[in-house]
Amino acid sequence: MTHTHVELRSGAYADSVTLLQVSKQVAQTPGVDAAQVAMATELNLDTLATMGFDVPGTSPNDMVVALRLADGADLAIALAAVEQALADATRRPSDEGSTVAPPRTVGSALGRDGAATLALVSVPGEHAFVEAMDAVDAGRDVMVFSDNVPVEQEVALKQAAERAGVLVMGPDCGTALVDGLGLGFANAVRPGPVGIVAASGTGCQQLMTLLELAGVGVRAALGVGGRDLSSDVGGLSTRQALRLLDADPGTELVVVVSKPPAQEVADALVTFADDLSTPVRMALLGDGRPDLTAAAESVLAALGLPAPTWPRWDAPPSSGEVTGPLLRGLFVGGTLCDEAMLIAREQLGPIHSNIPLSPELAVDGTLDADGHVMVDFGDDTLTRGRAHPMIDPTLRDARLAEVAADPRVGVVLMDVVLGHGAEDDPAAGLAPAVRDAIATASADRRGLDVVVACVGTELDPQGLTRQAEALAAAGATVLASNAEATRLAVSLLPAAVTTGGAR
Amino acid sequence: MSPTSELLTSSPSVVAVGAGMFADAVDAQGVPTSRVDWQPPMDGTAADLATVAADPLRAEANARAVAAVLAVQADLVDVVPAGELLGLGPSDFLHAGPPITWERASGPMRGALMGAAILEGLVDDADAAEALFASGTGYTLDPCHHHDAVGPMAGVVSASMWMFVLEDAASGRRTYCSLNEGLGKVLRYGAYGPEVIEKLRWMSGVLGPVLQSAVRATGRVDVTGVLAQMLQMGDEAHNRNRAGTLMLLRDVVPAMVTSGHDASDVADVVRFVGGNDHFFLNLAMPACKLALDAARGIEGSTMVVAMARNGTDFGIQVAGTGDEWFTGPAQVADGLFLGSYGPGDANPDIGDSAITETAGIGGFAMATAPAIVRLVGGSVPDALATTRRMAEITLAENPRWSIPVLEFMGAPTGIDVSKVCRTGILPQINTGMAGAVAGTGQVGAGLVTPPASIFPAALAALASRTRGRA
């Protein structure tokens, strides 16, 4: 039997929004067909009348509780629901949700954090420009780790930065050091007088580690992105970085390090650098140009310092004679791979590669060729869907096992890059892999020489000596200079190969 | 170059967006890092976002738009019949939202138009009104926004309705809005019964003239200033206008009393205004429009200058795209319902009142009116979070409209089309709900957002203009 209950509560008050919520909650109670809890205003009395409730004389300060029930026996339950709903509506909120949600854009983050000086952008490439522009708009420097940023966006970003007086490091920039802070893949080095402008990440790391080993510190290393010295970009960030370092009283000498740049861009850069008051040295890899170690030595000479003997950790004597005629280079650093190819081909002739010095030397998906081969495992095509080999060397370690089983191979050249961002203990994984590789060759009654260029410093979290000794104990010869490591690797091949040239 | 780079002059402090490992590495070196909670932008917007971000006009255009909006001072200067003010004849009607025809008009829009036709004596009853509008001739229909005006809910304005006149003294620009009828069965919610028409006649015959005398005698009433105060008194100036309404009375009642109008008429007016918590909404709205119109036509600016709904379409206009409307289907609000009404009874979102959110109050100032968040069963922390969230999609904070509970943070002002597309955060609007059937009136109140699609559409138009200029 339908039951209607109308009750007036004098002196009770809640605002209309609360009471709408209370009414909604009560109406959802089982057995309640309709419910309206409201202050007795004219509007609400009309609404109650529309709902079929007969309300006796009231004042607007009365609270009306009107219920229609399927069965009068449920009244106590319904009234309890009203009390509960009123109590719920006036509950003290918990502290949950009171923490402030994080910013959703770089612009918002910079707006909230007025002290921020630098934005780091590593979102997918197609979205990186928009986030980076927030920083430029806010007059902040920005470092873009993201790759696959369209080149026209890189140009637009760097032009805007030039207008704003800030620096864009990147895109596809992996290395920077500012005020002792390593960004991306960067080595721990002492503060000092040398400023580095780098269009190459591992090239920069080789330079800064060699300077550190020679006792010379770095003021700042500013990565500008691998394409900065291309014709399209024209060195926009390189010039901006040079301006900043030139204006910096702490910088006595600047080095520009790059993979082979566009010739006209390199020429224009030299002209630009000549007008600066701070001396600028160019360490631009290429045919007939000095390698990175030579560049480091020329910096030392400019500072009036002699070139040291670069550290080397020799392996225990090899168990077998090297007969395999071919060299295999397995790299994580693209510039280190470039440098090694430029040096090795002077003796060995053409080097096949996934980042070849000329197009006809490109290898296919097997990463193999009938000749000398050097592979950059950090190249975009090999990092799709996985971390950079400086963090996850699984692919390269697997490749080492394969080349060790190849009787054509006599010498393997590898790099290990230490520093911030790199894996915690590279030797822990690589040393056993080296031991296994040598054992594989030995079981086949062949000798296999493994040479490692270890780019790092004693200040790095991994420790240069600790890593080098572990690798040497496993049978690798370890050198701090990639150029020296390459020359050693070439010299370890059977004599006929280096004198006659390999095909 | 004006060297603003701090790379070599100060200790680094970092903002990081994207892969966490880069920020982790900075953290590990003991350098302060704040992290962005980045998510991919709305589908299909990446290229247009990049184009607009690269627009050399954008940054300065948005800075100019913000400055223009914040510089406007809205004063109530007069109350005048729409016919006299806007040159409307008895068969000319204005409505809320982007342009619409009778065929596509929703129930409440049709109901309000029918009521207005009866009010103007154009027809004798509802049937005749319906026939007139369905015939497609013998009347004109135009958005309020095309006549420097705004109207809440259906927003229907006809010649004999009186309107507030707001003016920015510095520029001389003016905006207009009708007088608020109160709640319940009212024209703006689509009701057109005899009691609705009777109230409108009283508003034209008594309320309008009394207010006109009072405003003219009082002199300029600082509406922007009242808004600043009411935001500190629990009003967000869209669904709560209680403090604002009483402050208006405080300002104009003395002149009303000495105006020479019949004392019982003055008493009726004071009782009507004081008993209608939403009366000030019709001043807040044109004040917001007056401010936002200052940013219209700034090439390159991505700021939204109007959000408006006609009960069928939700439309926005943007500073950098002229008078073009970007429209999508209006949504049904999520909220609480009066009496036995439920979601099935509600019409999709309607009214020009979202101009308040466009200017940074209403849903954007939710934190200052926590009671409103209960419309969707939320909590006080929700209200605080909403205002902070709106700051993610706006270009500036309004220093005059500050919110005490957020340490006097300014209301988040100037919706940026790009930021909406980047974050996927939609503007939050506080709104009333009209019954879907013409003649019903109000059925509830709640919270609503625009259809997401209109922001990528506006962005595409901005990107197209950018490319055209390049």
Per DSSP E runs of 2 or more residues, the count of β-strands of chain A stands at 19
Q: List low-confidence stretches of chain A.
A: 92-98
Helix content of chain B: 25-40%
Mean pLDDT of chain B: 95
User: If strands are numbered along the chain, what order do they take across the biggest sheet of chain B?
Assistant: 6-8-7-3-9
The CATH C-level name of the largest domain in chain B is Alpha Beta
As a percent range, the share of strand residues of chain A is: 15-25%
**CATH H level of the largest domain in chain A: which superfamily?**
Succinyl-CoA synthetase domains
Strand portion of chain B = 15-25%
Please state the overall shape of chain A, judged from the principal axes of the Cα atoms. Answer: elongated
**Which strand order spans the largest sheet of chain A, edge to edge or round the barrel?**
13-19-18-17-14-16-15
Give the arrangement of secondary structure elements.
The complex is a heterodimer of chains A (503) and B (470).
Chain A: E1 3-10, H1 16-27, E2 32-39, H2 42-50, E3 62-69, H3 75-89, H4 106-112, E4 118-122, H5 125-137, E5 141-144, H6 151-164, E6 168-169, E7 175-178, E8 181-184, E9 194-198, H7 201-213, E10 218-223, H8 236-246, E11 253-258, H9 263-274, E12 280-284, H10 292-302, E13 312-313, E14 326-331, H11 334-348, E15 352-353, E16 373-376, H12 380-383, H13 394-404, E17 409-417, H14 426-443, E18 449-455, H15 464-473, E19 476-479, H16 482-492, H17 495-500
Parallel strand pairs in A: 4-5, 5-6, 9-10, 9-11, 11-12, 14-16, 14-17, 15-16, 17-18, 18-19
Antiparallel strand pairs in A: 1-3, 2-3, 7-8, 7-10, 13-19
Helix pairs in contact in A: 1-3, 5-6, 7-10, 11-16, 13-14, 14-15
Chain B: E1 14-18, H1 20-28, E2 33-36, H2 46-53, H3 58-71, E3 74-81, H4 82-86, E4 92-95, H5 107-119, H6 126-135, E5 140-143, E6 149-150, E7 162-168, E8 174-178, H7 194-218, E9 221-222, H8 223-231, H9 242-257, H10 263-274, H11 281-293, E10 304-310, E11 313-318, E12 326-329, E13 334-337, E14 350-351, H12 355-358, H13 380-391, E15 394-403, E16 409-415, H14 417-423, E17 429-434, E18 442-448, H15 454-469
Parallel strand pairs in B: 1-2, 4-5, 6-8
Antiparallel strand pairs in B: 3-7, 3-9, 7-8, 10-11, 10-14, 11-12, 13-18, 15-16, 17-18
